[in-house]
Write a structure and sequence with these properties.
Structural class of chain B: alpha+beta
Distance between the termini of chain B: 46 Å
Shape of chain A: globular
Helix content of chain A: 40-55%
Strand order of the largest sheet of chain B: 1-2-6-10-7
Strand order of the largest sheet of chain A: 2-1-3-4-5
Order of helices and strands of chain A: HHHHHEHEHEHHEHEH
Oligomer: heterodimer
Number of helices of chain B: 7
Mean pLDDT of chain A: 94
Strand content of chain A: 5-15%
CATH topology of chain B: NADH Oxidase
Strand content of chain B: 15-25%
Largest sheet of chain A: 5 strands, parallel
Radius of gyration of chain A: 18 Å
Number of strands of chain B: 10
Mean pLDDT of chain B: 88
Low-confidence stretches of chain B: none
Radius of gyration of chain B: 18 Å
Helix content of chain B: 25-40%
Number of domains of chain B: 1
Shape of chain B: globular
Largest interface: A-B, 27 and 28 residues
Number of strands of chain A: 5
Chain lengths: 223, 245
């Protein structure tokens, strides 16, 4: 891996968005993901390499730390912001097909549930892992999930719930996806869930953290 | 007031608070997120954002709390369940073990209003998720601080009888199903504090809490018993762990 790509991974992990960003203090005045990614493109490094060996590596590192409780939500959010700053220089290459996502995900918080922070973090970790995410928001019905699957043809649907009263609504989504798009994987997560519950509703996978969902997608669904 | 001049214990009471009443510090908010504001902390920016959230909160919170204290002859506490009148709460053994000596039960609710929730959602759906998240954490800390104030009010009211209070316990924690929130609200006045419940028992405004506190001569506050509970992502567990670091 080139030194520049290693540097991109480092600033994403640390959440250094751009040179002007005041945090983290240890990187004050140094280039952030914005400047470094731009430079990598200008130096002719292939955009797919910049994504896979720079930006994604940084997000993977923070995702693993989050999974292991070494860092908390704010570090993930700030890393995602740095990732986004770098991605704006890569995005034009998606149109020209010089860069491709690993696949597509439809994500949402299930019907009756208005909590979105967990689902947002999941979306950021998956995007940071090289997946395209179609975020349906909160309070998403089984029909709405199914419509989005028909339209976007994702590799998987990720569902989140924060309440015991709403996690039961995941069952209808899993059932609907199985009926309408049996090849699409269903992944469930959220504070009150357990692996037993996921098994009971016949979801394909349960992960207690976003990184687990990303690792499952990378191993089971990546193109 | 009761005949003796003491404030009546039983019945409904409501309180309004100003932000300054809560003594909520930026450290409380940053702790809520798993970090601290100690000198030299490389995440000092979180402390700055918590201060910004405090400024915003001054004109965007509505801090209200209240409780209804239910008389002893209406209560039957068994292992894992609490019956009040003809309503049975499946409150789980962790909670009933700590309430079983109670002579009265205070059913409470508290809210920080929906002002900060709206600001947070707007920021999170835009380009400043971190600030949105810190504001959300501030609102969570504020509503818990209102609940702390309620506990203190209750303690003040029952103290002349020689009574103590237990910790507060909420549906959604210690394996007590959040669905039971609707039973709890059936004992509170209509639209209490402006809080409503969705069909899935979610309180609106979201930054609200509800629960039960035991009162009586032979009850006491205890450390939260994370060791006996299997909820890994519980708010209380995070706070305890954060303080232990």
């Amino acid at each position: 891996m080139s030194e520049l790509l290693e540097r991109i991974a480092h600033v994403v992990e640390k959440g250094k968005v751009n040179k002007a960003a005041p945090f983290p203090p240890a990187l004050k005045g140094e280039d952030g993901a914005d400047e470094l990614t731009k430079r990598a493109v200008e130096e002719g490094i292939k955009p797919q390499r910049i994504l896979n060996e720079g930006l994604v590596v940084g997000m993977m590192k923070i995702g693993v730390k989050f999974k292991n409780n070494e860092v908390f939500v704010p570090d993930v959010l700030i890393a995602a912001k740095a990732m986004k700053a770098g991605m704006k220089h890569i995005e034009p290459f998606f149109l020209s097909k010089e860069v491709e996502y690993k696949g597509k995900i439809v994500a949402g918080t299930v019907a009756g549930d208005l909590h979105d922070i967990g689902k947002n973090i999941l979306s950021m970790i998956l995007q940071g892992g090289g997946w395209e995410v179609v975020d349906l928001g909160i309070d998403v019905s089984a029909d709405k999930f199914a419509e989005a699957v028909a339209e976007h043809k994702p590799e998987a649907v990720c569902m989140s719930a924060l309440l015991t009263t709403t996690m039961v609504n995941m069952e209808a989504v899993v059932k609907k996806i199985r009926e309408t798009s049996p090849e699409t994987k269903t992944i469930v997560g959220g504070a009150p869930l357990t692996a037993d519950f996921a098994k009971k509703i016949e979801a394909d996978f349960y992960s207690p953290d976003p990184q687990g969902a990303l690792e499952y997608l990378n191993s089971e669904c990546a193109a | 007031m009761e005949a003796s001049g003491r404030e009546a214990v039983f019945g409904a009471k409501e309180f309004r608070y100003e932000l300054a009443d809560l003594n909520l510090t930026r450290d409380d908010v940053v702790e809520e997120m798993g970090y601290t504001c100690e000198e030299g902390n490389e995440r000092g920016y979180l402390c700055d954002l918590a201060e910004e959230a405090a400024e915003l909160a001054k004109s965007n919170v509505e801090l209200r709390g209240g409780f209804v204290v239910v008389e002893p002859d209406r209560i039957d506490i068994q292992k894992g369940s609490i019956q009040i009148d003809d309503v049975v709460f499946d409150s789980q053994p962790i909670i009933t073990a700590r309430l079983r000596r109670a002579e009265g039960l205070a059913l409470f609710a508290a809210t920080a209003g929906d002002g900060l929730e709206k600001i947070s959602k707007e920021l999170m759906s835009g380009d400043d998720m971190l600030k949105g998240y810190v504001i959300d954490a501030y609102a969570s800390a504020a509503v818990e601080a209102v609940a702390d104030k309620l506990e203190a009010e209750l303690e003040r009211i029952v103290e002349p009888r020689g009574w103590n209070v237990t910790n507060r316990y909420s549906p959604g924690y210690c394996n007590w199903s959040v669905a039971e929130q609707s039973k709890l609200f059936s004992f509170l006045p209509e639209a209490f504090l402006g809080i409503t419940l969705t069909a899935t028992s979610l309180m609106r405004p979201i930054k609200s809490v509800s629960g039960v506190i035991g009162v009586g001569e032979n009850v006491k506050r205890q450390d939260y018993q994370c060791a006996v509970c299997d909820m890994r992502n519980c708010y209380r567990r995070r706070v305890v762990q954060s303080k232990e670091k």
